[in-house]
Amino acid sequence: MTTDAIEFAKHILLQFGVILALGSACAVLSQKLRIPDVVVFLLVGTLIGPAVLGWIDIKADSALNQLLLIFGSCYLLFDGGASLRLGVIRQVWITITSLATVGVLITALITGWAASLLLGLSPLHGLLLASVIASTDPATLVPVFRQIRVRDRVSQTVMSESAFNDATGAILAFAVLGVAMGGGSFSLQASLFDLVHHALLGIVAGLFLGYLASMLIAHEKYGFLHEYSPVVSLMAVIAAYLGASGLHASGFMAVFVFGFVIGNKDSFGFTMDQGEQERLDEFVSTTALIMRMFIFFLLGSQVDFRLIYQYLPGGLGVVAVLMLLARPLTVFLSALPDRLAKWSFPELLFMCWTRETGVIPGALAGLMVGIGAPHAQLIASVTFIAILVTILIQATTTRWLAARLGLLEESAREALPG
Known about the structure:
Layout: H1 3-33, H2 37-48, H3 63-82, H4 86-100, H5 102-118, H6 123-133, H7 138-147, H8 152-180, H9 188-218, H10 229-246, H11 251-263, H12 274-301, H13 305-310, H14 312-335, H15 345-353, H16 359-370, H17 376-404, H18 410-414
Helix pairs in contact: 1-2, 1-12, 2-12, 2-17, 3-7, 3-10, 3-11, 3-12, 4-8, 4-14, 5-6, 5-14, 6-8, 6-17, 7-8, 8-9, 9-10, 9-11, 10-11, 14-15, 14-17, 16-17
């Protein structure tokens, strides 16, 4: 091994140590302030990035950055899927499906109109920008609802939507990109086929691996890996993502469904020993915390303040339309007709406010820059503005709004001061 390679390894190891040390302190601080830890991670990440202190500098286009973001997002999706309950999903599946499909299109059309008006883009390029930021972010929403105990059917609807709408947003973004770069005309039929293909194969891959993993760790006869359930969870998360991606399906959807099956393995006839279950839960909780540290420190450290400043007025206007017009219309048009769920007005209002932008839109924006898409720098700038604004404002106010609307679980209400 060369001296340069050793020095590079030491440099990366030092940055990892900085993230873990500061992340632990930030987690404690977030508990004291009673705000989601991802908010503190993101803010501190901007301070220690190359634009300010320079303590960490992992390039957005590096293989290491992509590895951390992909695996981190996958593990948080697995954690989120495992927290869902089958009985709740049966009540709200129509709303989830509508929000994750038609809802993304509604959001993109309204936000695209705002982008063309406020940033001087053509309608096509405005739609391209909007399609990048139209999906919500499971890497943000899952940990937020892990820390803030909101009524089950509301939190699980929002988390499920965020897992499923990534595929819709990515398909829409690349369909519009193909037209914008002269690759042909937009085909609704082809896009719908791609969406169904990505979704179904992702769900099948997740169900298969979830059932297999549940059998290996919890089956009375074949569960010979029950003592190694944490290792099985890691292997299966990687296998679900790579397997689905290899089938040209949604890897993120596969991981989320895999987590859902593991979390509801009792419904499939698999029961773990109480001690082994607690050990697995503790491992997943700790690993998810570490993944949140890395994801949001990295996102914060990669904010390009020069680009943000250049497009700040128009970008803030677009994000305001996204938050205050596009999202409410999307929620009411998608959820209000659902007679099975029978949503109350406070529940709808809460879902209108809960649509953080994060890792997946950030990754899409990075891809746009990498392939030289039209107005790629502007798209990246507005995407980071959306990430900063939605996480800093919406994630921070989630607990307060849920309390005001009477949507906190009983234990969470008792923990509120006063």
